[in-house]
Amino acid sequence: MGMGITAGLYAFVEGNAMSILDTINAPQDLKNLSEEELQTLAAELRVFLINNLSKTGGHLASNLGVVELTLALHYVFNAPSDKLLWDVGHQSYVHKILTGRKEQFHTLRQFGGLSGFPKTAESPYDIFNTGHSSTSVSAALGIARARDLDGAHYDVIPIFGDGALTGGMLYEALNDAGRSKTKLILILNDNAMSISRNVGAISKHLRNLRAKPGYFKSKRVVEHALYKLPAGGKTLVRLIRNTKRIMRNLVLPTTLFEDLGFDYLGPIDGHDLHKLISVLQIARTSKKSVLIHVLTKKGKGYLPAETNPQNYHGVSKFEIESGLPTDAGKPDYSYIFGAALTRLAEDNGKIVAITGAMPVGTGLLEFQKRFRERFFDVGIAEQHAVTLAAGLAAAGYTPVVPLYSSFLQRAFDQALHDVCLQNLHVVFPVDRAGVVGADGETHHGIYDIAFLSAMPNMSILSPANFGELEQMLDYAVNQHNGPIAIRYPRGHTQGNPMNTSFTFGAAKRIREGSDAALITTGRMLQTTLETAGLLDAQNIQAAVLELPTIKPLDTASILDCTNGVPLVATIEDHVLTGGIGTMVATALAEHGVQSKLLRFAFPDTPIPHGTVAELDRLYGLDAGSIAKTIKEFFHGR
To answer: Is 258 noted as a catalytic residue in this protein?
Structure first.
């Protein structure tokens, strides 16, 4: 076993008679371990992660990379009194294991089990719910300011990756925190590149010097002595500081973080426990805010993830030996979108694609290879991506901006203010629309119809199968004027895949029925057709109307389909408020339709993680539950 494991990791762990991990039930259990024992524990944690995630799936590479860092943080600090905040949070698995959730780890990302992200309801060690990038420093600063107002003395430690530095919100927080007197200990987990360029031997010498305990100790002793001088002590301290800063800047540019007001320590080897512990102890005794720059390797300890970390960011179940997924992948909506866009770009030189650090997840890899000059990866910066697209559109190009539905939320103002109010031709493929399963409440895309439909000039499309998606994208890119969104789900499930015709603004009557009218869109067409089949067995004849175009709404087709039926039901993969149920209800009310209306959608509450099928059943959105509710209506009559 373990051909893909780096440096004989399995052999090392299995060669130890007693597992240290078995003795760890809380962070306090780490305090009595030697550094050698901590290093052994790091190896055991990697094996534990690989074994478990091969069965459950999850975020593998990032967690393998932060094993030593997480151990050092819990070794030095006293959580939950001291507050650890994980930016995004997908790298918090080791933190979960060390904080009493080891025995439940096999339930990770499964319905009713552990979340793949920090959750305050799950553990007192999870200080803040996270799931999106670049939020940790803002939240940490708020907690630290509350600490100061309360006169408390605990440490607040946000941990964020170099990817988070591509998000503008983090710079807003750093700007605020750096000029304040509120102490934070910031951990930059850099697993890709140096944030500040190393400048030869002087840079290496100064950074090594500043990372040594003696440097800060001697600095504080000297400053303390100078302050005690009867006259001129404070002036002398300022003079020394300013002289040092001037001399240093003559030979070495300051880091961004020093310019913002932080003491900068690093870069530090993020897999050297001794150095990590020493630097964290220094930071803990500092009076000022400190930023520690830690260099880690994504996927460390597992060769396939080390070699190709982008493919092991989020994984499904996989075979440990080879690293290959155990279930062969089928083409999904993201792949179909990417392939279709690449074909369209062959004939239309005005098409440009913009991604927010998600070329793989949104299906743009082939486009990136074929049209590098027309491909822009802006990092985790959805706001910038959308306004960049607005600028390109204003200059005559056709920008296509595929974003996950839950990430498009972050650019609400830019979509409204910069795109829609100017009626610019920007195409928004909205990936992961609807519930997405294991990533849970922060990643479900069940709000986009509501916020996009409120924007002037915005059109919204929703394919039920691959063929509709391809036709919609062709229309959106080559024929439409103004902003347009195409929302599609995660995965490969298709409804009515043989009926792929698409006409903008037109609903499609899929089947006839005089007892009920079932109105649906997107992924839920398949469920709706299954529901109609179950109702047939109850002698309830239901018509099915698909809405490939959600906005503008085809009110005429809706009125025609609902004419004379006692029951109308809307079925959607969206929250109840602001979805197609709301839009259909408004249309029926405005035209005096008296039919009973049932709306099937997700409630106005955070939706947990679980498979899509489990969540549908939980909230009564599976075919059996919907048919049962409709049958009860007719029996009640």
So the answer is: no
